[in-house]
Amino acid sequence: MYKYSYDIIDKLIFENIIKASEAKGKPISCKKGCYYCCYEQVLAQGIEALITTVWINNQTRHFRRKIIKNLKKWQQKMESSKLNLDIKMPQEVYLEADKYWKSNIPCPFLFHNSCLIYQVRPFACRTMLAASPPENCKRLDGAVIVNCSSFEQYVRSEFLKVSQMLLNLPIDYKQKEILTYASWFPYLVIKSLE
Ligand code: SF4
Questions:
Q1: I want to staple 70 with a disulfide (CB 3.0 to 4.6 A). Which of 78, 94, 108, 138 is the partner?
Q2: Which tens digits make up the pLDDT trace of 182-192?
Q3: Cβ 182 vs Cβ 88: under 8 Å
Q4: Hey, whose CA ends up nearest to atom 5 of ligand 1?
Q5: What is the mean pLDDT of residues 32-49?
Q6: How far is CA 169 from CA 29, 54, 162, in A?
Q7: From the CB of residue 140, how many other CB atoms can be counted at a distance below 10 Å?
Q8: Residue 2 has pLDDT above 70, yes or no
Q9: How remote is the CA of residue 96 from the centroid of ligand 1, in Å?
């Protein structure tokens, strides 16, 4: 199910953003092995974390343990850098973006410069696309990021509709609570894996 949904989103991103940017003379330069944007703040809606959690729970126990270990380390670094973790609304989290970048904390899903959850990575990662040389992404303001805001708004409103539908189903209390959050993506996965 999630695979089908993300396949559709990827197809839309390819047709509406990647091809469109290329047609404007700004080809996307993101490629396998790029990872600088994995040091940036990643925000997501609760539904994205639930999808990722279902996927993680379907992997081997060894893989799941490794993910949980990485998430714990990430949480400790966040706490020692005095970053505000327990935030449920994105407006407040945005305020932490600069501080997060300066803290140099890699995403807990990054391993040997690759994304461990690539198939179920959140929408924010899928649309973080640069049209400048990858090394420019070493600096927060160095990259030419392709604007996807109207497309993003559309997809986010669809996520919201699905979340509202799920809230009416007999799912457990914890899942319902997470569905109402929008926050740091790893934090949401921590909450939903608990
Ligand atoms: S989820 Fe994957 S793609 Fe997104 S920031 Fe983390 S490692 Fe990078």
A1: 108
A2: 899 999 999 99
A3: yes
A4: 38
A5: 93
A6: 42, 17, 11
A7: 13
A8: no
A9: 18
Question: How far is C-alpha 90 from the chain's CA centre?
Answer: 13
List phi, psi (to 5°) of 132: -140, 165
Which atom in ligand 1 lies closest to the alpha carbon of residue 117? Answer: 2
**Tens-place pLDDT, residues 105-117:** 999 999 999 999 9
Residue 38 CA to ligand 1 center (angstroms) comes to 5
Q: What is the dihedral of CA 56, 57, 59, 65, to 10 degrees?
A: 80
Averaged pLDDT, 145-171: 86
Report the chain's terminal Cα–Cα distance, integer Å. Answer: 23
Amino acid 22 reads E
* β-strand partners of 12: none
> Which atom of ligand 1 is nearest to 109's Cα?
7
Spatial separation of the C-alpha atoms in residues 61 and 66, rounded to whole Å: 9
Q: pLDDT-based confidence at 4, cuts 50/70/90?
A: low
CA of 162 to the centre of ligand 1 (A): 23
What residue spans define the domains of the chain? 2-193
- Ligand 1 nearest atom to the CA of residue 118, by list position: 2
CB count in 10 Å sphere of residue 121 = 21
Q: 123 CB less than 6 Å from ligand 1?
A: no
Q: Whose CA is nearest to atom 2 of ligand 1?
A: 115
pLDDT at 143 over 70: yes
Burial readout 164-188 (b: 16 or more C-beta within 10 A, e: otherwise): eeeeeeeeeeebbebbebbbbbbbb
